Amino acid sequence: QSQAPILLSELAKNQNTSFPQLQEMLSKVVTTGEYKYVQTGNTPETIYVLSERYRQDIQQKALGIIDQYHRENPLKPGVPREELKSRLNLPVKLFAVELKEWTNKGDVQE
């Protein structure tokens, strides 16, 4: 299983290092695309670190939930946002960012 997302500020605290030092340490894996920063707000404390594998896994899980919902509820327009967010177990703002990306790529319709 892929690693769950973590706030960059929490990771810095857990590693007992400064925010800039942590960003420097992560620069290699972020540059290679193995990990990505996802900003969910306007402050440094709202930056998550996500592995690309986790992002792919969570998107596949979301698509599976959506497909299952459509099969079980063919007359309904789609899975409610709150149900999808809850079943994915993502923080609210991170879910919003990921859903927007899936929608922009055309993988999901809102």
Give an overview of the whole structure.
It is a single chain. This protein is mainly alpha-helical. It has helices at 8-14, 19-31, 52-72, 81-88, 92-105; strands spanning 6-7, 35-39, 47-51. Helix 1 (8-14) crosses helix 2. It is elongated, with a radius of gyration of 16 Å.
How would you summarize the topology of this molecule?
Elements: E1 6-7, H1 8-14, H2 19-31, E2 35-39, E3 47-51, H3 52-72, H4 81-88, H5 92-105
Antiparallel strand pairs: 1-3, 2-3
Helix pairs in contact: 1-2
Number of strands: 3
Distance between the termini: 28 Å
Rg estimate, integer Å: 16 Å
Structural class: mainly alpha
Physical arrangement of strands within the biggest beta sheet: 1-3-2
Q: Which H/E pattern describes the elements?
A: EHHEEHHH
Number of helices: 5
Residue share in helices?
55-70%
Low-confidence blocks of residues: none
Largest sheet data? 3 strands, antiparallel
Calculate the mean pLDDT score and round it.
91
Summarize the entry for a quick read.
With 110 residues, this protein is mainly α.
